[in-house]
From TrEMBL:
Region Disordered, residue ranges: 1-31
Pathway in which this enzyme or protein is active: Protein modification; protein ubiquitination
Record-level Gene Ontology MF annotations: ubiquitin protein ligase activity; zinc ion binding
Cofactor(s) needed for function: Zn(2+)
EC annotation from Swiss-Prot or TrEMBL: 2.3.2.31
Protein name: RBR-type E3 ubiquitin transferase
Functional note: Might act as an E3 ubiquitin-protein ligase, or as part of E3 complex, which accepts ubiquitin from specific E2 ubiquitin-conjugating enzymes and then transfers it to substrates.
Chain ranges of the RING-type domain: 34-190, 38-86
Family named by the database record: Belongs to the RBR family. Ariadne subfamily.
Reactions catalysed, as given in the entry: [E2 ubiquitin-conjugating enzyme]-S-ubiquitinyl-L-cysteine + [acceptor protein]-L-lysine = [E2 ubiquitin-conjugating enzyme]-L-cysteine + [acceptor protein]-N(6)-ubiquitinyl-L-lysine
Keyword line: Metal-binding, Repeat, Transferase, Ubl conjugation pathway, Zinc, Zinc-finger
Listed Basic and acidic residues bias regions: 7-28
InterPro entries: E3_UB_ligase_RBR (IPR031127), IBR_dom (IPR002867), TRIAD_supradom (IPR044066), Znf_C3HC4_RING-type (IPR018957), Znf_RING (IPR001841), Znf_RING/FYVE/PHD (IPR013083), Znf_RING_CS (IPR017907)
Length: 190
């Protein structure tokens, strides 16, 4: 009876292997094509879709890497670690160049550059106050109060870091009510 159980078990293993081969052939795949399992979506992917992170042994598909980087950037995180907890691996901008869409790559690059500027405490910087721009600008001590944003070309006040308030001082502009401020902002958008 024991020999029957061993024989049935061996036959079962052979049947499972045969089903795997048949399944692969049914999908048009060859058993010799190398594959891996993405540790994010837990899907079996072909090796050409494999993305490895510097400093770790985890593997992810390129689609998941794109989504992961995008979500981290949405959370304002620019130092992006491997998704596996307690892993010391980091994604690097240049290492992701081939898989990231240009828009995500450029966004990450811009955020890294801004972070480098912000870390430099010897320089003063401000953001353009216009919501559709928000460009980062370096301001030196010799900057005039009225300045032009190099990105959107609109006038801003460097002193109070807001839209240019022609004809009033920063103090006067700061005391004005919100209705007047909105009118000034709309007027300066032209």
């Amino acid at each position: 009876m024991n020999s029957n159980n061993v024989e049935n078990h061996e036959n079962s293993d052979v049947a499972i292997e045969q089903r795997k081969i048949n399944k692969e052939e049914g999908r048009g795949e060859s058993p010799s094509i190398s594959s891996f399992m993405c540790e994010i979506c837990i899907d079996t992917k072909i090796e050409a879709e494999n993305f490895s992170i510097t400093g770790c042994s985890h593997s992810y598909c390129t689609d998941c890497v794109v989504n992961y980087v995008g979500s981290k950037l949405d959370d304002n995180m620019i130092n992006i670690q491997c998704p596996v907890r307690r892993c010391g691996g980091f994604l690097e901008l240049d290492g992701c160049r081939e898989v990231l869409p240009k828009m995500i790559f450029d966004r990450w690059d811009k955020l890294l550059c801004e972070a480098a500027v912000v870390e430099n405490e010897s320089e003063r910087f401000i953001y353009c106050p216009f919501k559709d721009c928000s460009a980062l600008m370096i301001v030196d001590d010799d900057s005039p109060t009225e300045s032009e944003c190099p990105s959107c070309n609109r006038q801003i006040c460097v002193s109070c870091e807001t839209v240019w308030h022609h004809g009033s001082t920063c103090e006067e502009f700061g005391r004005t009510d919100n209705k007047y401020r909105v009118v000034m902002e709309v007027a300066t958008k032209n």
